[in-house]
Amino acid sequence: MKRFENKVCLVTGAGSGIGAATSVAFAKEGAIIIAADINEDAAKETAGKIKKDKGKAIFIKVNIAQHSEVKKMVALAVKRFGQLDCAVNCAGIAGKHTLAVHEYPEDDWVNMININLIGTYYCVKEQVKQMLQNGGGNIVNVSSAAGLIAQPFNSPYAASKFGVVGLTRTAAKEYATQNIRINAVCPTAIETPMIMHGRRKLAFNPEALEAAKNYQAMKRMGQPEEVADVILWLCSNESSFITGHAMPVDGGAFA
Ligand SMILES: NC(=O)c1ccc[n+]([C@@H]2O[C@H](COP(=O)([O-])OP(=O)(O)OC[C@H]3O[C@@H](n4cnc5c(N)ncnc54)[C@H](O)[C@@H]3O)[C@@H](O)[C@H]2O)c1
Question: Which molecular function term from Gene Ontology is one that the record holds (predicted)?
Fold first, then answer.
């Protein structure tokens, strides 16, 4: 029997990078995937890829910063499949500026908090409500290395990701006796569209790319599949005594 046979797993940010890799990895282990993303075409593509490989998946467009949309997303999972076993809150943005706190545009600062932190809070809130009815479940929030140490010139990102760790640790304690485990992963540089084409545009900047690789003791970036493996482990029975962790996935950077 596969590790997640017929488990209902909701993944936000499923259209790209770590969320897409996590969706595919869960499906290979027998899970039913609800692939959620603000980019509907991308979510559809991930669900299509899973179905092509004989897996089970549906997709939904959601903006996690809108509480009503998050409620609909969880309701869809329950309506279609009767329960929610695992949730991975991966949707997020990295921002477009490299600026000190006093220079960072206020609207963009607040927007990042609204998506990365408040959006993740809406997700956890609605997922926990359902898991309490199920009798348990597993949640993994995707924070960042920037949720554990400073990331100069990207203050709203660091603040949002530190917030996700605080939410994770606190909620983990609140529901620990109710069979709901809540953990976070904190990756360093992972080769996804966010890092290659986003704020630092590493795909077009060989020097910055080299620096990003050298940050890890392994002198390379991680692959989204390597983060997915950790997320699956945290959602599996193999980690049954672990909750409230904020686990670096860092190629030895923090060693
Ligand atoms: N790539 C890295 O190096 C790295 C490192 C640490 C943490 N992270 C975190 O991992 C997560 C995934 O990042 P990635 O690198 O795979 O990025 P990505 O850009 O490849 O994927 C992010 C996905 O989230 C979706 N999304 C963005 N805003 C959304 C919203 N409001 N509602 C719903 N979906 C939304 C995007 O459409 C996209 O499909 C993010 O939370 C990111 O902060 C990434």
Answer: glucose 1-dehydrogenase [NAD(P)+] activity
